[in-house]
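README, section 4: Worked example with a bound small molecule

Sections 1 through 3 covered apo chains. Here we extend the same pipeline to holo records, where the ligand is supplied as SMILES alongside the sequence. The molecule in this example is NAP. Nothing else about the input changes; the structure line simply encodes the ligand pose together with the chain.
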Amino acid sequence: MPSRRRWLRSGGGCVPSQRVAVVGAAGFGGAVCAAIVQRHPALELTAVTARSDAGRRHDELYPIHRVGLTMEAFDADSLAERADAAMVAYPHRAAAPAVRALRERGLKVVDLSADFRLDRERYERWYQPHEAPELLPEAVYGLPEIGHREEIRGANLVAAPGCNPTAALLGLWPLREHLRDAVVDIKTGVSGAGREATDQTHYVSAADNVNAYKTEGHRHSAELEQELPDGVGITFVPHLIPVDQGLLATSYAITASDLTKDETLGLFHDAYEGEPFIDVVAEPPRTADVRGTNRARAYVTVTGDRVLVEVAIDNLWKGAAGQAVQDLNLMLGLPETEGLA
Ligand SMILES: NC(=O)c1ccc[n+]([C@@H]2O[C@H](COP(=O)([O-])OP(=O)(O)OC[C@H]3O[C@@H](n4cnc5c(N)ncnc54)[C@H](OP(=O)(O)O)[C@@H]3O)[C@@H](O)[C@H]2O)c1
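The generated complex, written as structure tokens:
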């Protein structure tokens, strides 16, 4: 049975809710999507899906999120009867067929995976043959603050960026016209690797420890290469740190012109003035200060011949679910900050 829309109070009147399904809600990213949508004043969470946890209540698996729906197996026809939009939080490769099934049934989709972030050549160079290449032309890269806001508005398919690229790009974007080369050093919390524990992310391995990984090339660097001007040299080194949620991107950038500290600060203020989720701050930011929020805190200074930029985000919020809801708000014509303040 198609579910009827709830009527919600808004702006002194009543408006129909936008019904949203979260696909992959048992994973870390999908669970936060479900939690945000559940409390969103203009959205109605109508379904949450899971694979191994199908049949289980979401709030039994994640009491902290207080989502009282039972997770169900993915069925695109059933979801299409009950939702106008979907957020898909599967690993890359598994996401594309689910996104295709939902798009074929007319739902707007925000995908959290890498499947629709890159052009086909880059995707197939870093990942594998694409499972739904016919959808790539309609997919929009979902980082509003770096010039994609107008494309996201009204788009039917938005690819939420990776957590590492979100922080790195927010740090490098204001410098883009001057940028020659940057070393991007990422420190990321263990939830960035998803729910399943591995040899690297098991508590005993990750606690009291810091290590670099994928030093020979991390596929997230493809998003930087795609979104920054041609010819910018990028060295990208992620490190796993023993925190649950949180990500700090430190970029050491060389610019073509000798920018002063005031000039670099001016570029950041110009780029992010009026941005609801970005704070340009006077001290190096702490991941703890953005935990559980969709905010990014950005700091810039000049040291020797380098520009030093630090950006802190929560990988599951501005790096994943929060950003995906920000994108969904734009796609549905809602205020960008709705449900995320
Ligand atoms: N974690 C982050 O900080 C972060 C940030 C940005 C983007 N992302 C992206 O967001 C997506 C979800 O990440 P996550 O951290 O939430 O991952 P996760 O915790 O591992 O959750 C993934 C979910 O997808 C399900 N799944 C796995 N393979 C599947 C398949 N073949 N078919 C159907 N369902 C499948 C899993 O189900 P089971 O529980 O049954 O295995 C799990 O519930 C990924 O593409 C990731 O790259 C994550």
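What to look for in the output: DSSP finds eleven helices and 15 strands in the chain. The first strand starts at residue 7 and ends at 10.

Section 5 describes how to batch many such records.
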